[in-house]
Specification:
single chain; Beta-Lactamase; Rossmann fold; Helicase, Ruva Protein, domain 3; five-stranded antiparallel beta sheet; 15% strand; elongated
């Protein structure tokens, strides 16, 4: 027979309640509990006397108790049914999730006389729900990653990242390729050092192609191409609403590069606050999207590149020494073109063969004076400048011989080409064009066109519009 106690002495109800497959309880009009059935007492391992009144609350998890009592009292005062979930300590000491439903009860005269409730163990359902939510969240994360990766790859279509474009057989280039072959198969961070246009990005792709991560695409980010306010989002991603314009969640380059290689180009242009955040991410192996407190682990091989002297930057306080030593585990210095002149004829013919079809040209000869001039030139813009010179030559050459621009080799090239004009407007236009050419048309960033001209990037763009300066397909 049940040990339950009913104030109205309804012994028949007690017998039925003890046989029920759920935990039952009752309270009186004073909110104090007056009855618990056998399944409840067996679950808690406590006596009816311990549970009576407010004793049942002793078994509720401390984190859930306040909410539990507020729901119960609020419903009681308004005579409304309620449903609540909380953790209740089982007889073996384990806290289990309980779904508790209560409904008001009334006596024969229609007077409110308390509540009657039923409770069931929903721990396994809660676990299944949590696992389902985690799986859905992971699916959403993967969907975002695949979507972002698809957008990234579409943007990369047409870019030249073929490692076969590493052309040359000079001793200086062979030394670089030998070092790259030695480190490619490892996960060691690599720091590529060299002047602009020396082929740092091609070497980065060669390192990735020789690694065990080559099945996934190399992910690149140019640290000089975006303002600091956007670089952080680009690297680490953001959640919807993290900032104005963040209309949807987006994974960053670290998440896209998980299991692959992340190429941080122009790392020397990263400002100090972002250097600190990058260092922390590399040290801890995890990142947080902007607007989120959730961390994401990553497995990324880092390749960084710069045309700056980072040791000087460290001495001047513009680059963190701890970040430098984390990135420069295996530094590779790429020689400028003037230190590998033997490769210039090979590069010239390679550029001609790869681009002359697009220009509807068929070059079969290069006059020796022209080739001598190309080999003797110092190439401050390195291979990128050589490509531009050959592009212009292809446009000028209508026959089988390659004809160089008459202004080639003279400084400033653009000003000499416009020597017949002496107006201030033309001189200003020529000077801006010359600086843009030297900076490969990169406007923003330290030591790029705007900085060299002493102008804000927005001011330079406005002036370019007024002067009719536009980058053409040959630039």
């Amino acid at each position: 027979m049940s040990v339950g106690l009913l104030r109205d002495g309804n012994e028949q109800f007690s017998i039925v309640a003890d046989a029920a497959p759920v935990m039952l309880w009752m309270s009186g009009g004073d909110m104090l509990c007056t009855f618990f059935n056998r399944p409840w007492l067996e679950f808690t391992g406590r006596s009816i006397e311990q549970e009576m009144g407010n004793g049942w609350a002793e078994g509720v998890h401390a984190e859930d108790l306040q909410g539990c009592l507020e729901t119960y009292m609020s419903s009681f005062n308004r005579r409304l049914p309620f449903s609540m979930e909380y953790r209740l300590r089982r007889a073996d000491g384990e806290y289990r999730w309980i779904l508790d439903n209560g409904v008001p009860k009334y006596d024969r005269e229609g007077q409110f006389s308390g509540y009657i409730g039923s409770a069931i163990d929903i721990t396994e359902k809660k676990r299944a729900d949590l696992e389902l939510r985690a799986a859905l969240a992971e699916n959403e994360r993967l969907r975002q990653r695949l979507e972002a990766e698809n957008v990234y790859l579409q943007a990369e279509v047409g870019s030249t990242h073929n490692v076969s474009e590493i052309v040359g057989r000079s001793q200086a280039l062979r030394a670089v390729l030998h070092k790259a072959a030695q480190v490619a198969a490892t996960d060691a961070p690599v720091l590529l050092l060299g002047e602009t246009g020396t082929g740092k990005e091609l070497i980065a792709h060669a390192l990735h192609a020789g690694s065990g991560r080559r099945a996934r695409p190399l992910i690149a980010v140019n640290c000089a191409a975006l303002p600091p306010s956007l670089i952080e989002s680009e690297l680490f991603g953001h959640e919807k609403g993290a900032f104005t314009g963040a209309t949807q969640a987006r994974p960053g380059r670290f998440e896209l590069a998980n299991g692959s290689t992340l190429f941080l180009d122009e790392i020397g242009d990263l400002d100090l606050p972002l250097q600190a955040k990058l260092l922390r991410a590399l040290q801890e192996g995890e990142i947080q999207r902007l607007g989120s407190s959730r961390t994401h682990k990553f497995d990324v091989r880092i390749i960084a590149a710069t045309n700056r002297d980072l040791e000087v930057a460290m001495h001047d306080g513009r680059f963190r020494a701890d970040l430098y030593y984390r990135l420069a585990v295996f530094p590779i210095a790429l020689p400028p073109l003037r230190e590998r002149r033997d490769d210039i004829p090979l590069l010239v013919w390679h550029i001609i063969q790869s681009r002359q079809r697009a220009r509807a040209r068929s070059i079969t000869q290069i006059p020796q004076p022209a080739m001598d001039a190309l080999v003797a030139y110092d190439w401050p813009g390195n291979v990128r400048e050589l490509q531009n010179v050959i592009e212009r030559a292809l446009i000028l050459s209508t026959g089988p011989q390659l004809l160089l621009d008459e202004a080639f080799g003279h400084k400033p090239t653009v000003c000499r080409a416009q020597a017949g004009s002496e107006t201030l407007r033309d001189a200003q236009r020529a000077h801006i064009l010359a600086v843009l050419e030297r900076c490969a048309w990169i406007i923003e960033g330290a030591n790029q066109a705007a900085a060299r001209l002493g102008l804000r990037p927005s001011t330079l763009r406005n002036r370019m519009r007024k002067l009719g300066i536009h980058r053409t397909a040959t630039r």
